[in-house]
Design goal:
The chain has 162 residues and is α+β, with helices and mostly antiparallel strands. The protein contains 2 helices and 8 strands; from the N terminus they run H-E-E-E-E-E-E-E-E-H. It has helices spanning 3-32, 154-161; strands spanning 36-43, 50-57, 63-72, 79-87, 93-94, 99-106, 117-123, 128-130. Strand 3 (63-72) and strand 4 form a beta hairpin.
Length: 162
């Protein structure tokens, strides 16, 4: 084997080793970033439309969630959402490979008009994470009655029938 052939083989070997090293460093960098996933489920509540958000941190870095909002397809701005219940309590910060469940209420004056919606979580580092498009936004258009403050008895039911 001639000297130029040996030099070419050594350079190809070093190229392969440097490409593998670069790929491993990119994978390590991507693994260290916050990777939050949001899944949304409709929770049937008598008094107002409620969603359960399951938030999962699938990365090794801890993540702090600062705000939850709702985006409707076709509307140009983000609607705020009210957090009703957190489980576990005060779970704004998710540790590595941690998860939590929040109950969220969307403002009652918003009319979805058949639009799809998705939830958007703002993280402390300024990035945003979105859920998939949800087709259950139509329940915002259904009227919800305020809960009655008194308990009905059988006599009350018979009076209403007469």
């Amino acid at each position: 084997m001639s000297t130029p052939a040996i030099a070419i083989m050594v350079s190809i070997g070093s190229l392969v080793i440097s490409a593998v090293t670069a790929t491993m460093s990119i994978a390590t960098y991507r693994r260290g970033r916050p990777r939050v996933r949001i899944k949304s489920y409709v929770v049937w509540d008598r008094t107002r439309p409620t969603w359960r958000l399951d938030l999962y941190n699938r990365g090794v870095a801890p993540v702090r969630i600062t705000k939850i909002g709702v985006y409707f397809k076709g509307m140009p701005f983000l609607q705020p959402a009210e957090i009703v219940e957190m489980e576990p309590a005060n779970s704004e910060t998710l540790g590595p490979f941690d998860g939590c469940s929040w109950k969220v209420v969307v403002r009652s004056d918003i009319r979805a008009e058949g639009r799809r919606m998705k939830f958007i979580a703002s993280l402390a580092d300024g990035s945003r994470v979105t859920s998939r498009w949800d087709k259950h936004a139509a329940i915002l258009d259904t009227p919800y009655a305020e809960p009655d403050q008194r308990q009905l008895a059988f006599d009350d039911i018979q009076e209403e029938e007469e």
